From TrEMBL:
Superkingdom, taxonomy of origin: Bacteria
Organism of provenance: Microbacterium endophyticum
Transmembrane segments: 37-57, 69-88, 94-113, 133-155
Name of the molecule in the record: Uncharacterized protein
Keyword terms: Membrane, Transmembrane, Transmembrane helix
Length: 183
């Protein structure tokens, strides 16, 4: 039985990996000089990212892992996709987000594989079911860990590197001496 403290971590890892996949895919798709094969990899990365976010949301709402064989297979396929992206275009697919997304994907895949290996879970009594309720401490620790890994990884993607600096944004409202908003 998974500890209530760590039960949410695979879902949080999937959410972090999903965000990175979407950022990597967006960078591959939007490049003006992207070859067709990189565009295909980018689309697949976006799809894997969206699927990972959907699975993460579903996993956080339930107490059991759904479709563990599919999740384990998808984790392996997404690792292959990361490797293909890095191999085919190392300039656009930075090693930092690839590594972080890969590590988070391994967490999800290992959890799914461990779930598949379990032959039979014992029936839980109501007291044990209550013990599986998500611990606020576990969620907080997981969120902090994923955020600490994903934030710099997103910044290292092409989308993150091309994003304007926060100080470079134009002001939306320019209040003149007359007190009226201008352009």
């Amino acid at each position: 039985m998974t500890s209530a403290l760590t039960r949410t971590w695979p879902a949080l890892a999937a959410a972090g990996a999903g965000l990175i996949f979407i950022a990597l895919g967006a960078g591959a798709i939007t490049g003006t000089d992207s070859p067709a094969y990189l565009w295909v990899i980018g689309v697949l990365m976006v799809l894997f990212g969206v699927a990972a976010l959907g699975w993460a949301a579903r996993a956080l709402m339930t107490s059991r892992l759904t479709a563990p064989r599919v999740v384990a297979s998808a984790a392996l396929a997404s690792l292959a996709l990361l490797l293909a992206g890095l191999t085919l275009d190392p300039a656009r697919m930075s090693i930092i987000p690839i590594t972080v997304a890969g590590a988070l994907t391994v967490v999800v895949g290992a959890y799914a594989a461990a779930t598949v290996r379990r032959t039979r879970e014992p029936t839980l009594n109501p007291t044990a079911k209550r013990a599986q309720v998500v611990s606020a401490v576990g969620v907080f620790a997981g969120v902090i860990t994923v955020a600490a890994l994903v934030t710099p990884a997103l910044a290292a993607t092409e989308a993150g590197q091309l994003a304007p600096d926060h100080s470079a944004h134009s002001e939306i409202f320019d209040f003149s001496e007359s007190g009226h908003a201008g352009h």
